[in-house]
Amino acid sequence: MTNAVLEWVDRRRGVVVAVALSAALVIEVMRRTGGGTGSMLLGTALPLAVALFAVAGTRSYRPRRLVARPDENTFDVPVHPGTVLAAAGYTVLGTRTLGMAGDNVIVLVFWIVALAVLWLFALGRFGVRLRPEGIADVHLLGSSVIPWEALGAPATAGNPHQLRLDLARPELVARHGARHFDPTRLTTTGIDAAFLAAVIEEYRAQPGRRSAIGTEYELSRLTAVHGVRSGGLPQP
């Protein structure tokens, strides 16, 4: 049940953030129209409940699923639902704080920037992407593009949160942006690391399959090969 809810959160990120913003505005209207106690309780309890669910529910959430983008010939690693829930909880809490900040410019600027960054991470496209030409690792301040030809030995899942790549030809890696990240380490918070390692190894060892990356047909094939049901969660 929990996994199904988290998968829905991941697939409906915009809806979750929009609902949180709507709830925050309702709570703020309540506060301004005389419902001070109720709005305070709701404005505190709601983000706390979301935070507790995010911590407890997402700790072991490691879906064996990729997101197909046929128009870009890309497979994206899903956004971790904990990121989305954090943005939702802080939206409620931040809107309440902004409403009570008055003329405190420091508080106003801090929460506006914090909410903007959280929304960016929740709704944006960061993390690992698989493309016919290689692996893209996209961060807020920079990115790396690792051609398949640069890979040496199979990728290894050192821990549930990170995948380690062996680069036989590191000079082929292209780096972009203000900050350069280690291209041998891929963050896997939104996906099962062993599953991603297996998919990467398949494309490394079988160049002929790379042209199909991003297609729904190829996603279905990966689903069948790696033994997951269509929803992207491990079979019981």
UniProtKB/TrEMBL annotation:
Keywords: Membrane, Transmembrane, Transmembrane helix
Domain of life: Bacteria
Transmembrane regions: 12-29, 41-61, 105-123
Protein name as it appears in the record: PH domain-containing protein
